[in-house]
Every structure is written in structure tokens, then in C-alpha cells.
Amino acid sequence: MNIFGWLNDQLLRMQWLSDLVTAGISATGLDPTSRIGGSVQFFVYDVIKIFILLSVLIFAVSYVQSFFPPERTRRILGGRSGIWANTLAALLGTITPFCSCSSIPIFIGFTAAGLPLAITFSFLISSPLVDLASVILLASIFNWPIALAYVVVGLVVAVVGGTLIGRAGMEDQVADFVHSAPVQDTDHAMTRAERLGFARDQVAEIVHRVWPYVLIGVGIGALIHNWVPANIITALLGQDKWWSVPVATLVGIPMYADIFGTLPIAEALVGKGVGLGTVLAFMMAVTALSLPSIIMLKRVVNMPLLVLFLTVVTGGILGIGVLFNAITDWFI
């Protein structure tokens, strides 16, 4: 356990980097314990750490993802039904695109291929909500129990949400053009060189897409961590406030960011006394209910189905937030 703890601190939390940044800030004459010095230390350390982990993890996850192109994933899910099919769809969603908007085209392909709505929505919910890279990043900022708990609750929301939507019998609420969309069936096996090239390209594409959100998220986290008094944060979003989870969920919906940009904010909020459930609700709302993804989904489904999707996912997020606020002491 001591060896595991040391590896976790040095490889994931990058304590060596924190010490190096602190020494560098001290060398410039800034006091790392002051507000300004602490903000600079938080920003520089978190930005470097997140981009190092992000690049390594996306490369590894993308290499695994190259074995599961949309066509192969669709064939794996084809002909399946029931709770196990939803669970499989949610699990496959963890190794596919990293934001809700990029999942919509795959959702269209699955629906056009005749997969049940229950399966396609379980996939649609899981894909942006839970991915392998976010698990490692969560562990690097918080701890492994919290990271694993996030995965479990994310998969539960995806499976239960997809099941409820499937049982509503709203297949006729999907736009007509979706059913007639062409379905590609080109699943050629990549060579090792192609997989490495694919993984490299994914790193470049995703880092290029998320870097502004990471900088903004870390900047907000640094401000919260060093400039906003804890009593103000707890007065608004304290664990004992019944409205903290609904407010965090509503605040997260208009935002458009990957989980990588929300993690530093979550880290700072937990440090100020905000409940774990409130923070999880915020992160889930940002990733699963972002306004751009809702707008895109409205183009492929009719309003009744969209409202049902939003109601089911929002209800799941609120329930999980309240539950985890009640059991925060188990994890922190």
C-alpha cells in the first residue's frame, strides 16, 4: 500500500511537479503561501499536470478506442436488448468520444442501423459522462474511491436513463432523416502503425479542442481556492444546504466544457467545503447536459423525447448529488 501510495502521489498527483513549481515561484520572490503566490502555484501546477496526464491518457485510450470503431460497436450492440444490452452500451460509451456533441453523429448512426432507443440513449449518456481518461484524472486530483464512485454513478445514470427512455416507446419521436441516414459498414482492421497514428492524431485534436477550457477551469479554480472565502462558498453551496445540488446542476447546464476543464473547479470547491455530491452534480451537468449538445440533439429528436431525456438525466444527477452529499464522509 505504501508503494501504491507513493506511485499515486508521484505519477498521478505529480507531487514532484508541485514541489518544483513551488520552488520556482519562491525563486522569483513570490511567497507560495500568499494569495497571489498560491494562485500562481495552483494555476501553473494544475495546467502542466493536466496537460501531461491528458496527453498520455488520451494516447492510451485512443489506442484502445481504435479497436472499437463505430461500425464494430454497432455490430456488438446489434440484436441485443434488456438491461445487459444497456449496460454494454454504457460500458462501450466509456471508450468513445470525449464530449457530448461528438457523440451525436454516432447516436444517429446507431439509430439509423435500427438499434433500440434504450441502447442508443445509454450510449449517448455514458459517452461524454464517463471515460477512462477522466477516471485517472479524477484519481490524480481527489482519490481512487471518488474516481471509481464517479464511474459507477455515471454508468448507473446511463443504464437507468436509457432503460426508462426505451420503455417510454417514443421511437416515433426521432426525426425522419435519422432513420434514413446512410449506415457505413467499413470496419477494416488497422495496422499497428495506423493505430499509433490514430492515437497521436486524437491527442492533437482533443488537446487543441479542450485547452481553452482547461485554462479557464484552472483559472477559476485558482480564484476560488485562494481568493473566495470558504464561508461565502459554504453559505451558497455548503453540504447542509438543500438547494446546493439543484443550483450546481443548473449552473453546469449552460457551460460547454469537457470534464478536464471542470476538474480544477471541482477540486477548489471541495477544498472550500462544498459537498462531494454537489460537485459531482456540477460535473455531470456540464458533461451530459451542456447547452450545445441539447441544441444538437433537438435537431435529431422531437421535443417530447428531448424533454424526457432531459428529465431523466437531470433527475438522475439530482438524486446522485443528494445521495453523495449524505455519504461524503465515506470518501473524504
UniProtKB/TrEMBL annotation:
Bilayer topology annotation: Multi-pass membrane protein
GO cellular component, one term: plasma membrane
Subcellular location per the Swiss-Prot or TrEMBL entry: Cell membrane
Bilayer-spanning residue ranges: 42-64, 114-139, 146-165, 210-230, 242-263, 269-291, 303-327
Keywords: Cell membrane, Membrane, Transmembrane, Transmembrane helix
Family: Belongs to the UPF0718 family.
Protein name: Putative permease
Source organism (scientific name): Thalassovita gelatinovora
